[in-house]
């Protein structure tokens, strides 16, 4: 019974532990204030969670493959949905051995804008994209 009593009502050694933990929390609050994060919103990078895409679905971070046709060959390229078309074009040209400056990507009869993302064009796993000389 004495062991249970001492668990709920610690001696002076237990109180020192509580004080040490309280000081630890105060130290982290001070370090946040020194970094300028006074209201403690956001993450460890100092940005709000929505700025980093925390509200996006898990589909948005999974890589998938897109088939790219070029000169009778079919290349299998892995892309992220939030990746720019310019990055996809760079990867395709590198694997095909073509100069990037003279090539364009076409999907469903539409020339892809390099500043847009893969998600914008609703490219999905296994879709075919054509690499053309422009």
What's the arrangement of strands in the largest beta sheet? 2-1-5-3-4
What distance separates the N and C termini? Answer: 86 Å
Mean pLDDT: 74
Q: Indicate the CATH architecture of the largest domain.
A: Roll
Principal-axis shape: rod-shaped
CATH fold-level label of the largest domain: Ubiquitin-like (UB roll)
* CATH homolog superfamily of the largest domain: Phosphatidylinositol 3-kinase Catalytic Subunit, Chain A, domain 1
Number of helices: 3
Q: Give me the Rg, rounded.
A: 27 Å
User: How many beta-strand elements?
Assistant: 5
Helix-strand layout with pairing:
Blueprint lengths: L1 H7 L3 H23 L29 E7 L2 E7 L5 H12 L6 E5 L2 E2 L16 E6 L1
Parallel strand pairs: 1-5
Antiparallel strand pairs: 1-2, 3-4, 3-5
Q: Could you please describe the fold and organization of this structure?
A:
It is a single chain. 31% of the residues lie in helices and 20% in strands. It has 134 residues and is an alpha+beta fold. It has helices at residues 2-8, 12-34, 85-96, and strands at residues 64-70, 73-79, 103-107, 110-111, 128-133. It folds into two domains: 2-50, no CATH class; 58-133, Roll (Ubiquitin-like (UB roll)), CATH 3.10.20. β3 and β4 (110-111) form a beta hairpin.
Concise structural overview:
The protein is built from 3 helices and 5 strands, in the order H-H-E-E-H-E-E-E.
Entry keywords:
alpha+beta, Ubiquitin-like (UB roll), 134 residues, 5-stranded mixed beta sheet, 31% helix, 2 domains, 3 helices, 5 strands
């Amino acid at each position: 019974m004495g062991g249970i009593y001492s668990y709920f009502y610690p001696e002076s050694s237990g109180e020192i532990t509580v004080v040490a933990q309280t000081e630890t929390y105060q130290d982290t609050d001070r370090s946040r204030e020194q970094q300028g994060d006074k209201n403690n919103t956001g993450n460890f990078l100092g940005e709000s969670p929505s700025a980093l895409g925390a509200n996006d679905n898990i589909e948005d971070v999974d890589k998938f493959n897109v088939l790219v046709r070029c000169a009778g060959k079919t290349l299998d390229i892995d892309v992220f949905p939030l990746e720019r078309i310019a990055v996809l074009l760079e990867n395709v040209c590198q694997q095909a051995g073509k100069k990037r400056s003279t090539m364009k990507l076409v999907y469903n009869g539409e020339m892809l804008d390099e500043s847009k993302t893969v998600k914008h064009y609703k490219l999905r796993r296994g879709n075919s994209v054509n690499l053309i000389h422009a």
